Amino acid sequence: MDQGPWMRAELGLVASDDTWVTWRLAVELAPGDHSARVRAIGRDGRTQTARRAEPAPDGATGLHEVDFEVQRS
Fold it and tell me: Rounded distance, CA 36 to CA 4, Å?
């Protein structure tokens, strides 16, 4: 989160070996702009590569990053 250290997220149910897995991570953030970057770690312990590649022919690679704003409630 915000270029900080990697944190372990809670994973949702896995439907099959060929599906996306939902996840969540509860954090407290100050109001303002933030970014979240995610990566996967396989059952075999290999970490997802940050190198971006298109889906064809072997599946997409790269890390997913989202920018967002936290507002005061």
Answer: 10
3-class SS of residue 44:
coil
Q: Give the pLDDT confidence of 50-68 residue by residue, as tens digits.
A: 998 888 887 788 898 999 9
Q: Does an H or E element contain 33, and which?
A: strand 32-38
pTM reported for the whole predicted model: 0.73
Question: HSE on the CB side for 51, CA within 13 Å?
Answer: 3
Burial status of residue 48 (CB atoms within 10 A of its CB: 0-12, 13-18, 19 or more): middle
